Amino acid sequence: MESTENILSRIEFLRKKMTDVALKKGFTDNESVYISQELDRLLNLYEKVKQETTSTKS
After folding, report:
1. By the 8 A CB rule, do 34 and 2 touch?
2. Pick from 2, 3, 5, 7: nearest CA to 43
3. End-to-end CA distance of the chain
4. Which residue ranges does UniProt annotate as crossing the membrane (predicted)?
5. What is the pLDDT of residues 7-16, one digit of tens each?
6. Maximum Cα interatomic distance, the chain, rounded to a whole number of Å
7. H-state helical runs in the chain
8. How far is CA 26 from CA 19, 33, 44, in A?
9. Number of domains composing the chain
10. What is the pLDDT of residues 11-36, one digit of tens each?
11. 26 — alpha (psi -120 to 50), left (phi > 0) or beta?
12. In terms of residue numbers, what domain contains 32?
C-alpha cells in the first residue's frame, strides 16, 4: 500500500502539471482531461488510504 505522503506528493505534481497544460492548451484538451482524470484517481486513492489508516488505528 502506498503512503499518504507519496500520494500527496504525486497529487501536488499533477495539480501543477494540469494547470500548466490547461493554460497552454485549454481545459478541454485531451492531455488536460487525462491529467484531471489521473488526479481524480489519486485523490480517491488518498481518501481510501487515509480511511484505512484511520480505521486500523482504532
Report:
1. no
2. 7
3. 19
4. none
5. 999 999 999 9
6. 46
7. 4-25, 30-57
8. 10, 10, 24
9. 1
10. 999 999 999 999 999 999 999 999 99
11. left
12. 4-55
The pTM for the full model equals 0.84
CA distances, 2 to each of 12, 17, 34, 42 (Å): 16, 21, 22, 11
pLDDT for the residue 1: 64
Residue 11 near residue 50 (C-beta atoms within 8 A): no
How far apart are the C-alpha atoms of 34 and 48, rounded to whole Å? 21
Q: How confident is the model at residue 57 (pLDDT cuts 50, 70, 90)?
A: confident
The b/e string for 3-28 (b: 16+ C-beta within 10 A; e otherwise) is eeeebeebbeebeeebeebbeeeeee
